[in-house]
Specification:
- By secondary structure, the chain is α/β, with parallel strands linked by helices.
- It has 3 domains: 171 residues, Spore Coat Polysaccharide Biosynthesis Protein SpsA, Chain A, CATH 3.90.550.10; 106 residues, UDP N-Acetylglucosamine Acyltransferase, domain 1, CATH 2.160.10; 246 residues, no CATH class.
- It has 16 helices and 33 strands.
């Protein structure tokens, strides 16, 4: 089976809005965009590279780039491509790549190839976004155009559509491409579906760069640059230091000042007293004049920056002089570089990296303790749990265990176990009882709940009903200490709160369970407050304190002040209380001392 890679040619204008250049010829890392894509495709087993281009103005530059490549690359128009496809075997595959829509996680075809082993239709890789907790709000209208409701949709849960232009790449059998023509890669699934071709989407947890825009191309360039410098030194490159590489034939004057990360590609020259500030890529055969400044920019191949000129935060035009400076050349107009917020980027400040190491260590220690403690707890409490199971069977009809699907870490749904304390039809009765809800948030509770069995009240009052959750802890779905495990219905109300609480495993006990002080009047705000407080300050020591406080509260019936766990601060603090991003008045004034 032959895999033929088809790469769409896209054009981008330089920073000065001049003549369009081919995106494929732009420098990227230690190579060009075209060479980078070809290397990724070759790693997937493709040995036939085709660039689909109908732009006569960029064809010469593309042919020059293809001639310097280590791969056999053909530049074809649509008619020539049709002839090539008709000459392939029906069992061959086509890998379509549009470099304009570049996945922020990079090109990784392993999952797609694995899927193709058991699926003979077309496969599309769909970028679903890097944040699984991303949400959007939609206004739903009735037939007359009046607002009916406003609903929040979460990615991967209740939001099941895909955004326009979300296709990262496609893998299509040649047999499916007979007489199919399309202008954009996003139109290919529609064309295939109309022809009755089987289609399967595989979701990618990433976003897409629009690499034809200057802002996104700079962000992409920084990402690839950092990954290139972090890996092995590319062939035909010399390593100046861990933050700088120079290609074969590149000349850097001894008086020039380079502040990495910087890559100077083959044949480029940097003049005397020039300053290069990273992240910057100097393309092949570029010439940087004496005393010039290039800061956080990308210079296309063959660019010239004349002596004393400045290039900052842009994809520079081919020729830059002091009379025609690039955007931001005025020393008083030093603009901030584009902010790169991409999963997998190595450009992390040392202090943030240290904080990440500390947090990962805390999570590893927390998980080790959970495994040991839950295993011991299950062994010690097994006689009690067996007795409770027998009593539940004698007390009422129904199963011994009740499980309800809750959202765990990163929104992954799991069955949360409990001893059954209600009638077997309790879930169906809940909607009929919603008007009697005593609480102010999305969770449900009423006094004298008719669904609770006689034994169930005792199990709930003593918290024995939650002992089966030790199984959830043992297999990694929960932790001994953490936010309360909740279903999606309760988590969708507040987006930042959802993102924070789902960043850790839910727990059997936590700050909210032992420090809450508004049980009778409803305490949704306290619930949010204590969850975020725990996530911000989570440590193994804090977990030990909460566990001991839980046993103390159960045995004495007393409320526990949060000051017992975290240092107290003035209640009139105007901005950020204990790093939660919430002001003290999130809890009523008369309850602040009691709740901490």
């Amino acid at each position: 089976m032959l895999i033929c890679t088809i790469i769409h040619d896209r054009t981008m204008c330089d920073a000065a809005g001049g003549e369009a250049v081919s995106l494929l010829t732009m420098p990227l890392g230690a190579a060009t965009v075209l060479e980078h894509i070809c290397q990724c495709a070759a790693s997937a087993g493709s040995d036939d590279m085709i660039v689909l281009s109908s732009n006569a103005s960029t064809r010469a530059a593309l042919e020059a780039a293809a001639s310097r490549s280590d791969h056999a690359i053909r530049i074809l128009d649509e008619t020539e491509l049709d002839n090539v496809i008709h000459g392939l075997e029906p069992s061959d595959r086509l890998l379509f790549i549009d470099p304009r829509d570049w996945p922020t996680s990079g090109y990784d075809f392993a999952r797609m190839l694995d899927e193709a082993r058991s699926f003979s239709g077309a496969i599309h890789a769909i970028a679903m976004g890097s944040d699984a907790n991303d949400a959007s709000e939609r206004v739903l209208l009735d037939r007359e155009g009046h607002v009916r409701s406003i609903r929040r949709f979460y990615q991967g849960v209740t939001r099941v559509d895909r955004a326009a232009g979300s296709i990262a790449y496609s893998y299509v059998p040649v047999a499916a491409m007979a007489d199919i023509h399309y202008a954009e890669l996003t139109a290919l699934p529609v064309a295939l579906a109309r022809r009755g071709v089987l289609v399967r989407d595989i979701p990618l947890e990433c976003d897409l760069f629009d690499a034809t825009t200057e802002h996104d191309f700079l962000a992409l360039s920084e990402l690839v640059l950092m990954r290139t410098l972090a890996g092995p030194t590319p062939s035909e490159y010399s390593k100046l230091d861990k933050q700088m590489h120079s290609g074969r034939g590149a000349i850097v004057h001894t008086s020039a000042r380079l502040v990495g990360p910087v890559i100077v590609q083959a044949g480029a020259s940097v003049g005397a007293n020039a300053t290069i500030i990273g992240p910057t890529i100097i393309g092949q055969s570029c010439r940087i004049g004496a005393g010039a400044l290039v800061a956080q920019a990308v210079l296309p191949n063959g660019s010239v920056v004349e002596a004393g000129a400045s290039v900052r935060h842009c994809v520079a035009p081919n020729v830059v002089s002091r009379e025609t400076p690039a955007r931001g050349a005025d020393p008083l107009d030093f603009q901030a570089p584009p902010q790169l917020d991409v999963r997998g980027s190595e450009s992390i400040a040392p202090e943030l990296e240290d904080a990440g190491i500390v947090r990962r260590s805390a999570l590893a220690g927390k998980r080790a303790f959970d495994i040991v403690a839950s295993a011991i707890g299950l062994v010690v409490l097994s006689p009690l749990m067996a007795l409770v199971a027998i009593l539940i069977k004698l007390d009422s009809r129904g199963p011994v265990f009740f499980y309800h699907y809750r959202e765990g870490r990163h929104g992954k749904v799991f069955p949360c176990l409990k001893f059954r304390t209600m009638r077997s039809d309790a879930h169906q009765l809940q909607r009929k009882l919603l008007e009697q809800n005593d609480l102010d948030g999305p969770h449900f509770k009423i006094s004298r709940d008719p669904r609770i069995t006689r034994l169930g009240r005792l199990l709930r009052n003593t918290n024995i009903d939650e002992l089966p959750q030790l199984f959830n802890v043992l297999i990694g779905q929960m932790s001994l200490v953490g936010p309360r495990p909740s279903p999606f219905r309760e988590n969708q109300i507040c987006v930042p709160w959802r993102r924070a609480r789902l960043s850790v495993r839910p727990g059997i006990t936590g700050l909210w369970q032992i420090c809450r002080s508004e049980r009778g009047s409803g305490d949704f705000q306290q619930w949010i407050y204590f969850d975020i407080l725990y996530v911000r300050h989570m440590t193994c020591l804090l977990d030990f304190k909460i566990l001991f406080a839980t046993f103390w509260a159960l045995s004495t019936g007393r409320e526990i002040s949060v000051d017992s766990f975290l240092p107290a601060v003035p209640t009139d603090s105007p901005i950020d209380w204990r790093g939660t991003g919430m002001r003290p008045w999130i809890i009523p004034a008369d309850q602040r001392r009691k709740a901490g």
